[in-house]
Design brief:
The structure holds 2 protein chains of 2 kinds. Chain A is of the alpha+beta class. Chain A is 27% helix and 21% strand. Chain A is built from 11 helices and 19 strands. In chain A, the strands form 5 sheets. In chain A, strands 9, 12, 15, 16, 17, 18 and 19 form a 7-stranded mixed sheet that branches. Chain A has a 4-stranded antiparallel sheet with strand order 1-8-6-3. The chains are: A alpha+beta, B alpha/beta.
């Protein structure tokens, strides 16, 4: 039975949201748990997941439109079912409650309805009804890549629900790959047992080639048998991956920061011997040591306590009312690389926590970020951020400030170097480069430099943090 | 680097640990006067005397229990079972006492003990003495289980096992005692719980442990001749499993065959196959294959005995199934 799809509260404090992108086209089937649309809440971009299996019969809120929690944004039901009676009911209700100016969300969206549908890519699934291969095998794969526009253009969007053609079996990897490469898996002829669509079939389809015969030798295997003979390079192929979800949020936030906050950078090299020794001292009975980043977070918090001007942020309400917020707690973010982007889990109030507590919390957050994912309150609101590419052997680098903080500390690899010592001798010491990126609207050069000087002293002589 | 046999590597590990820690002792049937049924303990009685190298009666339940009690009292016994087939008599002491003591005493007792001996089929030993029983031990929380396939691992894992504060069961193999391999001259440990890639490859992952490693490496050579690069992962420890190493390899190759000489049902290998299916589902291009010992008591007839075990053609055939390269 057709039913209304309501805007729901996707964060505890959300009262309304902007629908940034529909991930399912009108008429397309979806599985429970797959992403129907992306909604920007007050805090983050969230995936709106399907509560059950079904099909999207009608879109009532166009992309870019806003809706309050509880507003109707679409109609869902069984594939091929008509939304008409429910639509009539909705427009009648809109007429009753608001005879002159139609209700803000529903009626306006009703008008936008046909145009919206036309503007949406007619995904290949739009006429196909429920299909096991509609790319919903993982939320990651399906969420990142909507079906390629136009690839199903032979089917008119208004065609009646046809018999599902996607009954051919496919391997899990083939389904994920097809979603990633924007290939309609139902259009592929499988070469596995029983016609199973497997990896090589999807790759062949994506490259625009016919599937190879099952027993054909693998590319390269035959060529390498003849020494000295090289296979000519294949033609350049380009894979276009539409940007959505996390990637889009990362791109927008970094651009906003870099183009609105005037960045400048201060660089300093510190002697890391005492810091590394402290790390050894903190090892537990099984030899597990806290991460360097936990030490950096703790000492940064100590330096921030002495330089509150650095633990601050620029705010602007968009009407010319700017203010600088000074924060009482050092909530330290750590940039963490993920396979599909990056995220900055935040350890709250590092000033009042011990290094081992910070380390434990940090590693829990990192594990969660790499696994099930962090809740918005776990990665937003850092007042200061640390990013460390030392593990990649990077000696020094600059970073983009992570709002709402105003400073970011970029940490390079600790490397043994010959150093001229105060007594005139040369010693080999492990040193590490620090590059502090600052928002000049909040932190003037001398303020940033004084902070970095104190931080460098604490890193070289951690006991100073206790002073 | 010295080349030595698996037997000599075990002997060196025992010798070093007996010298290092006076709480370490070796006990079992014929480990002393006879230098061990497979000569693993050769020379140790002469060097350490009858208080450290104990010949026991033919009573597996009795001397295994004696070892568990000694471990609770502060010693670090190594209990040699002449084979794991005979250890079936001692299951109660291992499963109900050694494996449970830390848990049921609320941490008041630990049981630092090693149970070791040959496992799996040798030759002409028939049903009762040709069993690969590692899954019996790997089934039990509270035990650690190691199954080294090379002399270096036999040395390094036995030393780690002796130093571990919890009971460790070690699976050796009669057919491997004479196996030669390089063992570094300086002392080293092989950590429990760490798998090892024996051969890197990109097209499929062959997962195995203990003696079948050598069959699998041979199969990988054959697959290379056919144009397929197999990655061979040697688990080395069966409990706790190095799951990350398993997933890293399968996520790279998208295909997996697990090889064991044990029976197929409720085995370490079938558990690994489930873990891969569960945790690499979206990276799999084919169902996980299992090559195991056949699901029968071991035949005495030698031709049938060989046919009941994993061999190169069986591994290659399974590999070609996951590669969709049959026929």
């Amino acid at each position: 039975m057709a039913e209304k799809l309501y805007m729901i509260a996707l964060s505890p404090t959300m009262t309304e949201g902007t629908l940034t992108r529909w991930k399912v086209a009108e008429g397309q089937a979806f599985k429970a748990g797959s992403v129907l649309c992306e909604v920007e809440t007050d805090k983050a971009s969230m995936d709106y997941e399907a509560p059950k299996d079904g099909a999207l019969l009608k879109i009532l809120l166009a992309e870019g439109g806003r809706a309050a929690v509880g507003d109707v944004i679409g109609i869902i039901g069984k594939a091929g079912e008509s939304p008409e009676s429910l639509l009539a009911q909705l427009s009648a209700a809109a007429g009753e409650t608001s005879p002159v100016t139609a209700g803000p969300a529903t009626a306006a969206a009703l008008q936008a309805g046909p145009a919206t549908a036309a503007a949406l890519p007619a995904g290949p699934g739009s006429a196909g009804g429920a299909s096991p291969a509609s790319g919903t095998s993982t939320s990651g794969g399906a969420g990142r890549t909507p079906a390629a526009p136009g690839s199903g253009s032979s089917l008119p969007p208004s065609a009646p629900a046809a018999e599902p053609s996607g009954s051919a079996p496919s391997s899990p990897l083939a389904r994920v790959l097809a979603a990633e490469l924007g290939v309609d898996i139902r259009s592929i002829r499988g070469t596995g047992p029983g016609g199973r669509v497997v990896k090589r079939d999807v790759e062949a389809a994506a490259a625009g080639r016919a599937s190879p015969a099952p027993a054909s030798p693998r590319p390269g295997a035959a060529a390498s048998a003849i020494p000295g003979l090289r296979v000519p390079a294949a033609d350049q192929t380009v894979r276009r991956e539409p940007v959505a979800g996390k990637r889009a949020v990362i791109a927008r936030r970094l651009s906003e920061s870099f183009f609105s906050a005037p960045h400048y950078y201060l660089k300093r090299t510190v002697d890391a011997e005492r810091l590394l020794a402290l790390r050894e001292d903190l090892a537990d009975t099984e030899g597990r040591k806290p991460s360097i980043n936990a030490l950096l977070a703790k000492l940064s918090a100590a330096a921030l306590a002495r330089h509150p001007a650095v633990n601050a942020g620029w705010t602007d309400d968009g009407n010319g009312n700017a203010a600088i917020e000074y924060r009482s707690r050092a909530d330290v973010g750590l940039a963490v690389a993920l396979p599909d982007g990056l995220i900055t889990p935040v350890v709250r109030d590092c000033g009042s926590k011990g290094i081992l507590d910070i380390d434990r919390e940090m590693s829990d957050l990192i594990a969660k970020a790499k696994g099930p994912g962090l809740a918005p309150q776990e990665y937003t609101g850092a007042t200061f951020t640390i990013t460390n590419l030392g593990g990649f052997g990077v000696e020094e680098f600059t970073a983009i400030i992570n709002p709402p903080g105003s400073a970011i500390l970029a940490v390079g690899a600790a490397r043994a170097e010959p150093v001229a010592m105060p007594d005139g001798t040369v010693a080999v010491r492990r040193r590490m480069s620090l590059t502090l990126g600052c928002d000049h609207r909040v932190i003037d050069g001398a303020v940033g430099a004084a902070f970095l000087q104190d931080l460098a002293r604490m890193l070289e002589e951690p006991g100073r943090a206790l002073g | 680097m010295a080349v030595m046999t698996y037997r000599e590597a075990l002997n060196r590990a025992l010798d070093e640990e007996l010298a290092r820690d006076e709480r370490v002792l070796l006990m079992g049937e014929e480990v002393g006067e006879y230098d061990g049924a497979y000569k693993v303990s050769k020379g140790l009685l002469a060097k350490y005397g009858p208080n450290r190298i104990l010949d026991t009666p033919i009573t597996e339940l009795g001397f295994t229990g004696l070892g568990v009690g000694a471990a609770m009292a502060g010693l670090r016994p190594v209990v040699e079972w002449m084979t794991h087939n005979f250890a079936l008599l001692a299951v109660d002491q291992v499963v109900n006492e050694a494996a449970k003591m830390r848990y049921m005493s609320g941490g008041q007792f630990s049981v630092p003990i090693v149970f070791r001996g040959p496992n799996g089929p040798a030759e002409y030993l028939a049903s009762q003495h040709s069993q690969a029983l590692e899954s019996y031990w790997a089934h039990v929380p509270g035990l650690k289980v190691v199954a080294p396939a090379t002399p270096a691992d036999a040395y390094g894992l036995l030393k780690s096992a002796i130093r571990d504060d919890d009971p460790v069961v070690m699976m050796e193999a009669e057919m491997m005692y004479g196996l030669k391999g390089e063992v570094p001259d300086e002392e080293f440990l092989v950590p429990i719980g760490r798998a090892e890639v024996r051969r890197p490859g990109s097209d499929l992952t062959l997962i195995t442990y203990s003696k079948p490693l050598w069959t699998v490496l041979e199969a990988a050579e054959e697959l290379a001749r056919q144009g397929f690069q197999a990655e061979v992962l040697d688990l080395r420890t069966l409990r706790p499993l190095d799951e990350e190493a398993i997933y890293a390899s399968v996520r790279k190759t998208n295909r997996c065959v697990v090889v064991t000489e044990s029976w197929p049902q409720a085995s370490v290998a079938s558990h690994v196959a489930w873990l891969v299916s569960r945790n690499c589902f979206d990276r799999l291009d084919a169902p996980v294959e299992l090559v195991s010992g056949e699901d029968v008591p071991m035949p005495y007839n030698h031709a049938l005995e060989l046919a009941a075990q994993p061999n190169v053609p069986k591994v290659v055939a399974a590999a070609r199934r996951v590669l969709y390269a049959e026929g």
